[in-house]
């Protein structure tokens, strides 16, 4: 946990920083690892990703605050019909090179234990971060 109690997770991946960066910024790759119905938009700095899950009519919208190849991706959730508690939070992905690939440090700033969705989101993020890593490892 960080000092503000936001959700954090660190994974060691057998993928390069560039491969993880691509999985976070390419709409088709985001759709694949996040089990979304579709992802449109731009994963570049200043862009927006519109991610539609399941039968959701309105997409979850991530404004891309930073996409600094290949080290950092920062999203700000501007719309989240599926999980309204996410609005205004900032999922942040930082990649560091290691001997076997890279370390992924993830913090979802604003996803804190006082939110109703915290426990479920904690379980879901663990699952999806593992899927992100597996996707990057397979598509590199």
UniProtKB/TrEMBL annotation:
- Domain Activator of Hsp90 ATPase homologue 1/2-like C-terminal positions: 15-135
Q: Where is the signal peptide?
A: none
The superkingdom of the source organism is Bacteria
A Pfam family assignment? AHSA1
| CDD domains the record matches | SRPBCC_CalC_Aha1-like
Concerning its family, UniProt says: Belongs to the AHA1 family.
Protein name according to UniProt: SRPBCC domain-containing protein
Question: What species does this protein belong to?
Answer: Actinacidiphila oryziradicis
């Amino acid at each position: 946990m960080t000092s503000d109690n936001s959700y954090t997770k660190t994974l060691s991946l057998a993928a390069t920083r560039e491969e993880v960066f691509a999985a976070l910024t390419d709409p088709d790759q985001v759709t694949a690892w996040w089990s979304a119905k579709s992802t449109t938009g731009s994963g570049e700095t200043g862009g927006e990703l519109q991610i539609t899950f399941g039968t959701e009519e309105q997409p979850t919208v991530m404004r891309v605050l930073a996409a600094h190849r290949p080290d950092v991706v920062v999203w700000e959730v501007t719309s989240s019909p599926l999980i309204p508690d996410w609005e205004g939070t900032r999922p942040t992905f930082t990649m560091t090179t290691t001997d076997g690939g890279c370390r992924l440090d993830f913090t979802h700033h604003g996803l804190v234990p006082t939110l109703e969705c915290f426990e479920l989101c904690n379980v879901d993020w663990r699952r999806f971060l593992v899927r992100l890593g597996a996707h990057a490892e397979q598509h590199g």
